[in-house]
Design goal:
With 207 residues, this protein is an all-alpha fold. It has one domain. The chain contains seven helices and no strands. It is globular, with a radius of gyration of 20 Å.
Length: 207
């Protein structure tokens, strides 16, 4: 009986330490919705890039005009905005249910470690766009996002690390198949977010 009590106490201490060092209120459902937003964004981007069916699938024949770039920026910003807002609202609700706070030392460390590689990649991609080097945009968004997930994973749920590794692999593959960047982008930000979000939802959120 005493051994069982000691094991229970150790388990409770471990849970308290996890809560103090890791942000565990990340919502799996928000990941699913982020994936859906990304798939819709990819569809809109596809219609923007391949509006002329004569260039369908012919990457070398594509002409990306300034209005197209502006529309792609609007689509990307809308996807990012909706994903962030959804993640904040749902994570706040999850934290409230578990009597936790959304903004604490763990979430601060998570955000800082996530933003360092993500912001660096974002500025680098903007420089490439400014120099009309557009073929690497999709691969690099996957790569830097994957690095951001891996870098921040030690401050949140461990599943985020595997999501990041998957994104990095897709980014490297996308670099090899440059003509299919949008497809890899949809697979990474869309399908992978839905898959990993579903895993996190059934693993953590339904308890």
């Amino acid at each position: 009986m005493k051994n069982e009590k000691y094991l229970k106490d150790i388990s409770e201490i471990k849970n308290i330490m996890d809560k103090s060092s890791r942000f565990i209120s990340l919502s799996g459902l928000s990941g699913i919705l982020a994936g859906i937003y990304a798939l819709i964004g990819a569809w809109l981007a596809y219609n923007t890039i391949y509006f002329d069916t004569t260039t369908l699938g012919e990457y070398d024949d594509l002409v990306i005009t300034q209005p197209m770039i502006e529309r792609l920026f609007i689509v990307a910003f809308a996807v990012l905005f909706l994903s962030v807002i959804t993640a904040v609202i749902m994570s706040a609700n999850k934290a409230k249910k578990s009597n936790d706070t959304l903004w604490n030392a763990s979430s601060k460390r998570l955000l800082i470690n996530f933003l360092i590689p993500l912001a660096s990649g974002g500025f680098f991609i903007l420089f490439l766009i400014e120099k009309d080097i557009l073929g690497l945009v999709a691969p690099l968004t996957l790569l830097f996002y994957g690095l951001a997930c891996v870098n921040a994973s030690k401050y949140t749920l461990g599943d985020v690390r595997y999501l990041g590794i998957t994104m990095i692999i897709l980014g490297l593959l996308s670099t090899w198949f440059l003509g299919y960047g949008l497809l890899f982008w949809a697979l990474g930000f869309g399908v992978c977010h839905i898959v990993y979000g579903s895993m996190m939802y059934f693993k953590y959120d339904r308890n």
